[in-house]
Amino acid sequence: MTNQNTPSPARRIVLVANVAAGSLVDGGLTPEALRKRLEAAGLDVMAEPHPDASLPERLDAAAELPGIDAVAVAGGDGTLACAAQALTGKQVPLGILPLGTMNLLAKDLGLPLDLDAAVRVLATGTVRAIDAGEVNGHVFLINSVLGLPARMARHREAKRGRMGVLDVVRMGAGLLRHLGRYPRDRAVLTLAGESRRVRFRTLAVVCGDYREGLGQVLSRAGVDGGHLTLYLVETLSAARLVRLGLGFAVGEWRRLPDLERHETDALTLDARKALRVMNDGEVVLIAPPLHYRLRASALRVLVPAEDPR
Fold it and tell me: How far apart are the first and last CA of the chain?
């Protein structure tokens, strides 16, 4: 007869920490300090197979370790998208230690941002399947953005970990300059079996959709809704930028006349040259055509055990 009081064996995990992530790059934490916190919470922490390799190689190797219960990843949304590249479609779940700047995925999942509470989720949480998006083999969990934001991202990357007030002001001024400096991107959009030519300042493909409402900027309505949402902004003058910004601020922006929106599970963008694409904050150059598709419930994630969703 099984003893019902026998404690469950410790969850066996491998920790992959991105030392360039927001809270780690500032020197507040080290991978060794994180490991000690995990072990103190009762987790069985295995050593990384290739700790000196690149981050994608480290995550690929960690995902293939036999006998593990999860891959725990310490970093921001870009790091988690990199982890999703290795784990999407596999049974091994992703454990999240939200140590980035915005931690949008953690917030969408209802994960605690406090480190000790996040560690407890790794030890006691349950597994939930969430959707992922994919473009030409590149996995994203939040959004894939083209146009002006992707161009501006390189300025943010140059200042990663050391953004001050003056840097933010300079980025804002640079955004206004970019509005007139660059022509709109051109592409052929194929959606629901129909193709048309589009010119845009910004195009975003969201995994799921954003939530409307006061204070809900960049917060998604769900992570397993079974669809992608396309947002297209053809023109973006300073006045329209202000109007969009105000719409986001008050939580009423879907019906703005400058914004086109479609729900879909797949779309294609074709162009004459490679396109700069920002997937979950990380910029890559992708040769056209860009084939977007939804991978429904393809990634397993550890969430709080009391998660009602």
Answer: 34
